[in-house]
Amino acid sequence: MELTPRKINLFNLFKLPAAFFTGIRVKTISDEACSVSVKHRWINQNPFKSMFWAVQGMAAELTTGALVMGKIHQSGQAISMLVTNNKATFTKKATGRISFICNDGALVADALNKAIETGEGQSLWMTSIGTNKDGVQVSTFNFEWSVKVKSKKKYVTK
């Protein structure tokens, strides 16, 4: 089963309703990149009439997390994934439609291959850049993801 924007957005409706109801939508996903869009609206604004930083963070994290999920699915392995750290920089007021893109699919593939080969957890930093409709960068998010092959539990019966 291929991971598509529609499947991810439907998943968000049921599993991540805060992301769905604030208007965050995956627009494209490939082996190398994922793009997400969110429009500044009343439900996702801060008191300063711009997009709340946490909404930008959810959209940015989704660009990175969807790539990790897609690569895990392609691997056919049982692999856990977790954000262990993040950093954000805000450079302009986020109003209108903001698009986030992450182009780190190759980094994910390398980390997963190494985790599968060694059996050890791996971490990688992924970047998502948010721009407004004029192409002006409004924020940059960096997420450190940890991936680890799940061990098969052995049960002993007496």
Can you lay out the helices and strands and say which pair or pack?
Layout: H1 5-15, H2 17-21, E1 25-29, E2 34-39, H3 53-75, E3 79-90, E4 97-102, H4 105-118, E5 122-131, E6 137-149
Antiparallel strand pairs: 1-2, 2-4, 3-6, 4-5, 5-6
> How many domains in all?
1
Write the CATH homologous superfamily: Hotdog Thioesterase
Low-confidence stretches: none
Question: How many strands?
Answer: 6
Taking all residues together, what is the mean pLDDT? 94
Q: In one word, what is the shape?
A: elongated
Task: Provide the spatial order of strands within the biggest beta sheet.
Answer: 1-2-4-5-6-3
- Structural category: alpha+beta
Helical content class: 25-40%
Tell me which CATH architecture applies here: Roll
Largest sheet: 6 strands, antiparallel
What letter string, H or E per element, gives the SSE order? HHEEHEEHEE
CATH class: Alpha Beta
Beta-strand content estimate: 25-35%
Distance between the termini: 40 Å
CATH topology, which one? Thiol Ester Dehydrase, Chain A
Indicate the multimeric state: single chain
Number of helices: 4
How would you describe the overall organization of this protein?
There is one protein chain. Strand 5 and strand 6 form a beta hairpin. This protein is α+β, with helices and mostly antiparallel strands and 158 residues long. It contains 4 helices and 6 strands. It has a 6-stranded antiparallel sheet. The protein has a single domain, classed as Hotdog Thioesterase (Thiol Ester Dehydrase, Chain A), CATH 3.10.129.10.
